[in-house]
Amino acid sequence: NNFEFNGIVSCLKPQTPDLPETSLGCNATSFELNWPASSNASNYFINVASDFNFINNLTGYENKELGNLLSENISGLNTGGTYYVRLKSGNSCAESSHSNTIKVAVPETIYTGTWSNGTPNASKKVRFSTGLNLNADLEACSCQIDNGVVMHVDSGVVLRVENGLDVQGSGTLIFENNASLIQTNNTPDIN
If you write DSSP's letter for every residue of 108-121 in order, what string do you get? Predict the structure, then answer.
């Protein structure tokens, strides 16, 4: 029984994964990421970083091999942090290119005269890009006053943040007499 093969053996390159958008809860230090299977894939590799260019990868998440799983619990995050995630798939003969990069962070609403993502609440980061006289109580996951922006908190008004308060550069936050700042979590993030 002599057998002779005159064909070509080929291997199909795996499909590039597609990551769905996800966000973090206000006090989250981990999140579960799920994705659909990529055709011809038998392995996945994940990168998680604190910057879009993946220079500052989280420990243990630089091209981490996951096997043939379709989810990963990403832990060790800083509360209120912003992270970037990408994935690639592989098989015994090839790897795909990287997936889309997703930004994983607490949802944000930006004040520019109106709110960009609905009114603030305890599950959103609030950012002021334009000055405001705050004349009603405001609750937010965290608060940022942009460089050059002046924000006044009127008398009797409470600005309540779960986590950090960041007044950038020449930004100014002024509390009138009997106004209050309440920070719920004991974090060092008041700048």
Answer: EEEESSSBBTBS--
Tens digit of each residue's pLDDT (9 = 90 or more) over 39-48: 999 999 999 9
Residue 81 structure tokens: 């942090």
* Among the listed residues 168, 175, 169, the one whose alpha carbon sits nearest the alpha carbon of residue 151: 175
What is the Cα–Cα distance from 18 to 4, expressed in whole angstroms?
41
Residue written as token pair 């989280």: 58
**β pairing state of 43-49 and 108-111:** unpaired
Distance CA 81, CA 163 (A): 11
Q: Is the pTM value of this prediction over 0.90?
A: no
Cα–Cα separations (whole angstroms), residue 101 to 2, 63, 106, 144, 184: 52, 14, 16, 25, 32
